[in-house]
Amino acid sequence: MICVFGATGRIGREVCNLLDQMQISYRAVSRDMTRAKAIVNAFPNKAGVPMAANMSEPGSVRAALHGASSVFLITEFSEGQTRLQKLVVDIALQSGVSRLVKVATMHRLVGQHSPVGVGRSHWEVEEYIRSRKLAYTFLHPTYFMQNLLDQAAPAIASGRPILLPFANSTRIAMIDCRDIAAVAVEALIHDGHAQKTYELTGPEAITFSELAQLATQIYGKRVRYRAAPEWLAKIALRFKKPNQWERVHLSGMIHEVNAGCANSVSPVFFKLMKRPAISISQFLVDYRLQMLGSASR
Ligand SMILES: NC(=O)c1ccc[n+]([C@@H]2O[C@H](COP(=O)([O-])OP(=O)(O)OC[C@H]3O[C@@H](n4cnc5c(N)ncnc54)[C@H](OP(=O)(O)O)[C@@H]3O)[C@@H](O)[C@H]2O)c1
Prior knowledge:
By secondary structure, the protein is α/β, with parallel strands linked by helices. The chain has helices spanning 12-21, 33-41, 58-65, 81-94, 117-130, 148-151, 153-158, 177-189, 208-219, 230-240, 244-258, 268-273, 280-286, 288-292, and strands at 2-4, 26-30, 48-52, 70-73, 99-103, 135-141, 162-164, 196-200, 225-227.
């Protein structure tokens, strides 16, 4: 039995989708039973079992992991991420789980001396897992293409320029969450991935200006990009994010991406999956409705 934490998230949902397609039974975990049920019912084979569990409540995590052999582990970035993930690891070991696939952050940011807190947090959890008897696979994906649904779609739909704090020269090898999920499922169900760390990127590193040009061609409407300076983003974050930890985290990530931490294409996805990763053009085609919003329908 595979236990999928973060089943309602952007990668977790795709992990459930793929397991359902393969008719492999799994548990879909969410803090909210209604949302867990909705995930299981979204897929035709109904191979999943919905589970309500909160990583900060050990009893519920124990119930979710009872009898499980493999775990997919992810949380959204938060101050409590290290504590929550270590707790899941402890209970997984007590429950007899033998295989764990964990999603961390961009490869160049995971480290003891990472300039961003989230990179240090993921490194600490990875070290914790390394020191235990568990077959682990660590996934280090770059910037998610699905971020564009929040960060670019509203501007595209309303005809405004996409305004983000990434310089015109900043290249990002964005990856589609569907591809991260594909690698996660590969590592969950096949041997040969134990004690491995995979740097995952998309097939090309592009700038936001190039992305706007592609969107213009694909959607047949003018899409523009305007780079906001980092100092302006810091001011905007003060209004948007009341939590100081989150503000520091986001400013740090923006700075590191502009410094080039996500600008190179990794060959790992192709080697593992024997196909190219999804391109940004394909993403824009597949998510046309969401990117153009109700204005296009
Ligand atoms: N965004 C990027 O570009 C990017 C790039 C590289 C790496 N990452 C990493 O990707 C990870 C996920 O980020 P995301 O923003 O895409 O999140 P997400 O996977 O879309 O959502 C987070 C998931 O975690 C679950 N969760 C959160 N707290 C929980 C708790 N206490 N107990 C049980 N489940 C809990 C949520 O489930 P419920 O709400 O249903 O309970 C949700 O399904 C982060 O670690 C981040 O560092 C992000």
